[in-house]
């Protein structure tokens, strides 16, 4: 089924009913979240960036810790990037933290700490897309800006009975047009939050609570009994299995850390030297690792022995990480290239590490 115009499926009268029912429901059932009360654009911005790819429950402790360390845009702008990455550690997708830092510097230095309120100006800042701009504009400034994120995308598809691909260009246009029609002039911030809450708590992905849903009388999917078929699921990306080796090279009570490059995964984070390997730790693989580490750092190591295996997932990769400890043998650290440092275990906490790097580091301290 191809839907081009949401006004055919959603007449103005239905829209009015939906707004009224949703507001009533939100007054009683809306979620209390730590970034909502103040209507502060800085808090809204940080929380929305953190919430990309992550759940509310997982974000709350990170958000509170981040806000304690960086209570406003100026304190964030003045911080060192490493410290921002350290506070972000564990949330993943570290380019978000680097963009937050860049944007804080722009707002602090060029706009005297004042956030723009228009969607267009917000979208010109690093790391702020259309959804985040709409969230800041509506939640913090009560501007009637539309929003489409994971929860509202699902909700809109069902309300419209849209069974096309919601991620396609056509699907995106339809949903954004609908969101624009939907958002009212009066208290648009509350209204957008109500839509998100309804999607998160009632119109859930697998078990939508239709019989008690406040907007069921306006819902095409429910009236057609197709709420479990909509939205159409996109095919899952096939996972690729990869094996990597990470080597903690030991020298007089210290271990070698390297800061990862801009074109690498986890850019800007520190890590033990790490390489993809073809197979298990055969003598041939170990010989190649010794050469690779020398090429990367300038030093040779000896007596490598595996101490731990960590399984983890990064985007579409299932990674088996073989962690080895080895002794420094000879050589000098490269002066050019990515920064390299000998670090004592009790100083590991001063460095922003990848999640697996942190797990490996902890095992060296314990
Ligand atoms: S009636 Fe069901 S499918 Fe429709 S919006 Fe409500 S929970 Fe979602």
Description:
The protein has two domains: 6-223, Hypothetical protein, domain 2 (Endonuclease III, domain 1, Orthogonal Bundle), CATH 1.10.340.30; 240-365, Nucleoside Triphosphate Pyrophosphohydrolase. The model has no long low-confidence stretch (mean pLDDT 92). It starts with 5 loop residues before the first helix and ends with a helix. It is elongated and about 80 Å long. Helices cover 45% and strands 16% of the residues. With 366 residues, it is of the alpha+beta class. The structure holds iron/sulfur cluster (SF4).
What are the key terms here?
single chain, 366 residues, alpha+beta, Endonuclease III, domain 1, Nucleoside Triphosphate Pyrophosphohydrolase, 45% helix, elongated
